[in-house]
Write a structure and sequence with these properties.
Elements (H helix, E strand, L loop, with lengths): L1 E4 L2 E6 L3 E6 L10 H7 L3 E6 L15 H15 L5 E6 L1 H12 L4 E7 L9 H17 L1 H8 L10 H11 L4 H12 L14 E6 L7 H10 L4 E5 L5 H4 L1 H20 L1
Parallel strand pairs: 3-4, 3-5, 5-6, 6-7, 7-8
Antiparallel strand pairs: 1-2, 2-4
């Protein structure tokens, strides 16, 4: 089943407390196919295509991290899904973090998977992020994906999974990617992480070479009460280890929902 809010396509499955899945900068809702199935028996699962990705309309201009957070808030309210558990992978985790900071009333909990404080933590990382859209424009999405997708995977990853990750990345479009990259480049949530007040689980693939285990450890240490779990796989751990990923998320959400129900 799909819905559209403000030009954003949302895939939905299941019933129960709502969970919104926010994909990474090189992904789409298709990156969460396993989680849509794995979480649906106990939750109402929503997976968005961010603006300019998948089946969603292209943005007219960069939204900024604040714009993405505001859009998530409107989406959850429109779909009667607030407060929701937010599960964000990489860039999606940075968006989820901003939603928790700016609109805590729509957030029940956070799962930050292979995520980061943002690329604005230093000028070099910001510059590298801002340069990525020019590479995408120069070589095209298929070649861009062929070059970058292998970095998202652990050594010896299942070839079928590797191909799926590359195929999804090959579907990215310049307007969406440009807006996403700029939002990452402008963002450093580090100084604000201590203000997060919702239960938080931090997940990371043990072979993540994009954001890295150390960055996830920093997130977990900076967010009050957050817990860290290291999973098999690389940056795309939710696709490489979908059963373990979904099991960790289901266990965490069950704990949060049991407290809320009291």
């Amino acid at each position: 089943m799909t819905s559209t809010v403000d030009g954003v396509r949302v895939r939905t499955a299941g019933d129960g407390s709502p969970v919104l899945l926010l994909h990474g900068i090189g992904g789409s809702s298709a990156s969460f196919d396993a989680q849509l199935a794995g979480l649906a028996p106990k939750h109402r699962v929503l997976a968005w295509d961010a603006p300019g990705y998948g089946g969603s309309a292209d943005p007219d201009k960069p939204l900024g991290m604040a714009g993405y957070a505001a859009l998530v808030g409107r989406l959850l309210t429109s779909l009667d899904a607030a407060p929701a558990h937010l599960v964000g992978v990489s860039w999606g985790g940075v968006i989820a973090t901003r939603v928790a900071l700016d609109y805590p009333e729509v957030v029940r909990s956070l799962v930050l998977a292979d995520s980061t404080r943002g690329s604005g933590v230093d000028s070099e990382r910001a510059a590298v992020m801002r340069d990525r859209p020019s590479e995408l424009n120069r070589v095209g999405a298929a070649e861009f994906a062929r070059r970058r997708a292998p970095r998202l995977l652990a050594p010896g990853a299942d070839p079928a999974v590797a191909q799926r990750v590359e195929d999804i990345m090959a579907g990215i479009r310049l307007p969406g990617y440009t807006s996403a990259a700029e939002s990452m480049a402008e963002t450093d949530h580090g100084p604000r992480l201590a203000r997060i007040s919702v239960p938080t689980l931090v997940l990371v693939g043990e072979h993540d070479q994009v954001t890295g285990v150390s960055e996830s450890r920093r997130l977990a240490a900076s967010i009050p009460g957050a817990r860290l779990e290291v999973l098999p796989g690389g940056h795309a751990a939710n696709q490489e280890s979908p059963r373990r990923f979904s099991a960790e998320v289901l266990d965490f959400l069950s704990q949060v929902d049991s407290v809320v129900a009291r």
